Amino acid sequence: MVVPCLQHQGGGVGGLVDGFRHHDFELPDPASAGGRLVHGSQSYRLCGPCYLPPASGGALGEILIVDDSRVNVGVLSAILRDRGHAIRLAADGPSALEVVKQTPPELILLDIRLPGIDAYEVCRRLRADGATREIPVIFVSSLEDGADRLRAFEAGGSDYVLQPFQAAEVVARVENQLKLFRLQREMARKTEDLERANRMLQTLSYLDPLTGLPSRRHFDESLEQEWRRARRQQSKLTLLLADVDQFKAFIEAYGAGSADDCLRRVAVEFSGGLHRGGDLGARFGGDEFAALLPATDGAGAGVVAQEIAQRVLGLRIPHRGSAIQVVSLSLGIAVATPAESESASVEPLLAAAAQAVQRARADGGNRIVAVG
To answer: Which domains does the chain have, with CATH numbers?
Structure first.
């Protein structure tokens, strides 16, 4: 156990004081005094580490007592250690702030009359610090003065206890604040966990689980943003859509597992054909893929589409339902200049790209059709 070294301000008290037991301070037992313990006025100063473990068992909570009265410290320590709480001590404001910085307690009992920095300022500093603002502070005073109480609460105090101490009242007020503090801490933890889970869900909603590409939701939001940006900048915006040719026949011939593997491999090549940082490739739905190409004209989009088509053909994925016996794509390109568009919506661009893909499929697939 670490024990404190106390001295009277006017002289020594025989060196180490072991544990602040009642006889160390010549205080009556709380039960024999009907639960009422009178306060004393002798001051002390700390000359060493000040940690007092609970009277027995593990600590239920760690409490910092900030008081320059030796007897008050003894009384409060005895009451709270008997309840199973561990105690730390500070005799003035600067010491208290340093203790809290090094080892934040779960609760602080703060004497309203402190030398140097007063208790109100200590409390205000605690509340101004993000690391300590939630720690409950109970002010301790020998004066039943409404103005003192008001100042205490205005400074950020959580509660107020008067001297002479009633042991049952001290315990009730301390443990009530501890319960509230722990409940708030648990609620904050659960809120943080929930926010983390929501962020993860949002991230997952922006990714297609099969291919790992951005999802349709992500693509739609990006398309709206790029449309508005192109409108402001009076630049072109190109949309490229691609379908896997005869994909229904592929599923029937090879099964759902092979179809999923095919889509994953096509997704890798589709996204691999997009080289600019601002381009976005996504799974559009089913066997459809989409690419958003800002500030790109039809000729530039054609180069991109040609590379994607060749990369997919290069996979040489067998496809008995295809005329060329390997997996291929039908690609459609639509180009718009949003600033010149009669519509403020992206729908005409989407419709034009879909029509281009349909024409590519109707013409036998494995080809590129551009409109606009």
So the answer is: 5-190 (3.40.50.2300), 216-371 (3.30.70.270)
